[in-house]
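Troubleshooting: if your tokenizer reports a length mismatch, compare your output against this known-good record of 99 residues.
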Amino acid sequence: MKKLTEIEISKKIKNFPNWTHQHKSIQASFKFNDFKDTFFVMKEIALMAEKINHHPNWSNIYNVLNVRLTTHDAGGVTDKDFELAKMIDAVIKESLQDK
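Known-good structure output:
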């Protein structure tokens, strides 16, 4: 997979309002009601990530999920990172609608 240029990333990230571009990755933080909701979303993301064989760097503290996406093999951001970001945004949107 080809690493995207800074210009390509800047154009694409405009369609991802929750995400920023930093340190050869795209990053976002999401806040939920509690740990249970956060963990549920993480489980859903993990299942999707496994299907497309592209895994996030992430951490959570209680109700906050921090996600960083990069393609290690390419040495930076690729279309695969934006594909997973889109999936993550969809899972989060769905989980918030269920509340």
